[in-house]
Write a structure and sequence with these properties.
By secondary structure, this protein is an alpha+beta fold. It folds into two domains: about 220 residues, Rossmann fold (3-Layer(aba) Sandwich), CATH 3.40.50; about 130 residues, Galactose-binding domain-like (Jelly Rolls), CATH 2.60.120. Helices cover about 35% and strands about 20% of the residues. The strands form four sheets. Strands 2, 4, 5, 7, 10 and 12 form a six-stranded antiparallel beta sheet that branches. A five-stranded parallel beta sheet has the order 13-1-14-15-18, sandwiched between helices. It has a five-stranded antiparallel beta sheet with strand order 3-6-11-8-9, with no helix packed on it. Strand 14, helix 8 and strand 15 form a beta-alpha-beta unit. The longest helix is centred in the C-terminal third of the chain and has 40 residues. It is globular.
Length: about 475
């Protein structure tokens, strides 16, 4: 009997093996998604969570209206596509500064690039910075925080620090102990027994191979005993600089020379808020990377306008603010992004008060793929979100870059991930190094194209004004 059972089991296994081998050629390469679509563990800013809770409280009537609106939007997109871009009309102030820089070969232009995990580790931004500095001049990595969740992966500057810093971020804290800095963070020394330090080392990348004019940014305090111990270029010689924290925002030049490396020890400084250092030369374009993982863009509304005005003044004035968000707003079961459109409209209007001389540029969400059945396809939320982003760009008179279309539109992320060499990561959401370089090139080329249109229109207006003047005479 045992022998009979053994033969029967063997025949069943053999038959199953033969069936599998026969069907192997027609089975899909992937049966299960390589990407988890469960967002429970994602870091999401508190304001987005609140907005989502409000959205979930819609009445059934509102939900029906939403479905109708979404259907109308999708139908319109299928027949008309996205609106034509007129960024040069909204970036006039930035382009005028760029024209003056190009003509006079003096002065500085500052760009603040606010983003989420897409720009983590200075991805995209480091290449955009290089493109601008190669063409228009400039040396330096810009503003760098005291600590950073992406410090280990950043190539444009080597950044390390002690583990006893206390950090507050506008992604998860609404009311900080002291106001958030321009980077959306504030940092405190919390350990009086152990050394609290931060170290910056210049990379070997072009235009950022030194730390230029290193300057520390910190807040107000009644503490008159705080000071810094500075170590330059790996030397053991200690330089002492007192911290005068008399103003709401204070700056301290850390060296009169450009450096290869800088280590800072903070002594008796536990009552002072610190923000970061700035590295920049005296001419050209500077691009600050203000990335925060899990950020929807809504926390930017927590920046204090008067404090941002001080940062704006100390950093020479921002000429362009770029907002690159969307990754953390996708995939919440609702294709109507009118709530996000309204919220981001308010955010941009708020930022215009914070940075009164800046032009604004919205970079849309990129393509993102999700598994539908057995196939990876463009997520159904991508196009509705890009449309909402274009609408709030138009409402706020901001420039707009449609990253989704520049990538290739529907299904482009799958191609970017699966082609050789790959341009995207296996999460079908983020870009690798090569992909980030390509995205930065897209953004730079779009800005250059709009800049050329601006100069052409300016030339035409100059000729027309000249002709009108001659006619009047």
């Amino acid at each position: 009997m045992n022998k009979s059972y053994f033969i029967q089991s063997f025949l069943i296994i053999l038959l199953a093996t033969l069936i599998f081998l026969g069907l192997k050629e027609v089975l899909p390469k992937r049966i299960f998604s390589e990407v988890s679509t469960n967002n429970a563990n994602m870091v999401i800013d508190s304001l987005l969570l609140e907005a989502l809770r409000e959205e979930e409280n819609l009445t059934s009537v509102q939900e029906q209206e939403t479905d109708t609106v979404v259907a109308e939007i999708e139908t319109k997109q299928e027949t008309e596509g996205f609106k034509e871009n007129h960024s040069h009309e909204y970036l006039t102030r930035f382009f005028e500064k760029l024209t003056a820089l190009e003509a006079d070969k003096k002065g500085k232009i500052r760009i603040g690039y606010f983003g989420d995990s897409m720009t983590d580790g200075d991805y995209i931004v480091q290449d955009l910075r290089r493109f601008f500095q190669d063409e228009f001049g400039g040396k330096g990595v810009g503003f760098v925080s005291i600590t950073s969740e992406s410090a280990a992966s950043r190539g444009s500057i080597k950044h390390s620090y002690s583990d006893n810093w206390k950090a507050q971020s506008y992604v998860n804290v609404k009311t900080p102990t002291r106001p958030f800095g321009v980077n959306g963070h504030v940092f405190f020394v919390t350990d009086s027994l152990n050394s609290t330090w931060v170290e910056y080392k210049a990379s070997y990348q072009k235009n950022v191979s030194e730390i230029y004019n290193p300057t520390l940014f910190y807040g107000k305090s009644d503490n008159h005993n705080a000071y810094l111990e500075l170590f330059y270029n790996g030397d053991t010689t200690r330089v002492i600089k007192p911290l005068k924290a008399e103003k709401t925002l204070n700056t301290l030049r850390l060296s009169d020379q450009n450096l290869k490396s800088l280590k800072i020890n903070f002594v008796h400084a536990d009552s002072i808020a610190f923000y970061g250092i700035n590295s920049g030369d005296n001419f050209g374009v500077y691009v600050d990377n203000f990335s925060s993982r899990g950020n929807s863009g809504l926390p930017l509304s927590l920046l204090n306008p008067s404090f941002m005005n001080e940062f704006d003044k100390e950093l020479g004035g921002y000429d362009l603010i770029i907002l690159h968000y969307g990754t953390n707003v996708l995939n919440y079961g609702n294709l109507n992004y009118s709530w996000y459109e309204k919220a981001m409209t308010r955010v941009i209007n708020h930022l215009r008060i914070c940075f009164p001389n800046a032009s604004f540029l919205i970079v849309s969400t990129a393509d993102k793929s999700t598994k539908y059945g057995m196939e990876m396809k463009t997520d159904s939320a991508v196009v509705p979100l890009v449309s909402a982003q274009q609408r709030y760009a138009e409402k706020t008179r901001s420039g707009f870059v449609n990253l989704y279309l520049l990538m290739g539109g529907e299904g482009s992320m799958v191609k970017w991930v699966e082609e050789e060499p790959a341009l995207g990561n296996k999460d079908y959401t983020h870009f690798n190094t090569k992909g980030s370089q390509k995205i930065a090139q897209f953004i730079f080329d779009e800005l250059k194209k709009e800049y050329e249109l601006f100069k052409q229109n300016k030339s035409v207006k100059t000729v027309m004004n000249s002709e009108n003047t001659n006619n009047d005479q």
